[in-house]
């Protein structure tokens, strides 16, 4: 929280008030495939973050703001980069279309940031 608030203050001039998440536990395989390895969501070892609500009333959405040349887009880039130092797996819109609207964060057995 402290690291994310510091990024929000630097990039947006306000703090994070609330985070919208899409889920943690879902007993399924990676990418909801019919077969293959279980997702970290299958053991509630992952969370998907869709948006950040700011103390000043604004909302920064991964779907709407990621990749844009704005303060909100810069905040999302910086938050994604910081998450790579805290979580083992960090996936976002650059990874694939399944992650176009959220950041996937997990503590799986290997490291990957995209």
Task: Please describe what this structure looks like.
This protein is an alpha+beta fold and 114 residues long. It is 25% helix and 25% strand. It has helices at residues 2-12, 62-65, 71-84, and strands at residues 16-23, 46-54, 59-61, 89-91, 103-106, 112-113. A hairpin with a 4-residue loop joins strand 2 and strand 3. The longest helix has 14 residues, at 71-84. The two termini are 21 Å apart.
Short description, anyone?
With 114 residues, the protein is α+β, with helices and mostly antiparallel strands. 25% of the residues lie in helices and 25% in strands.
Main sheet summary: 6 strands, mixed
What is the strand tally? 6
Order of helices and strands: HEEEHHEEE
Q: Roughly how many Å apart are the termini?
A: 21 Å
Mean pLDDT: 95
Question: Strand percentage, roughly?
Answer: 25-35%
Bulk shape: elongated
- Quaternary status of these chains? single chain
Question: Which residues form runs of ≥5 with pLDDT under 50?
Answer: none
How big is the Rg?
14 Å
Give helix % range: 25-40%
The SS-based structural class is alpha+beta
Highlighted features:
3 helices; 6 strands; alpha+beta; 25% helix; 114 residues
Question: What's the helix and strand layout?
Answer:
Blueprint: H1 2-12, E1 16-23, E2 46-54, E3 59-61, H2 62-65, H3 71-84, E4 89-91, E5 103-106, E6 112-113
Parallel strand pairs: 4-6
Antiparallel strand pairs: 1-2, 2-3, 2-5, 4-5
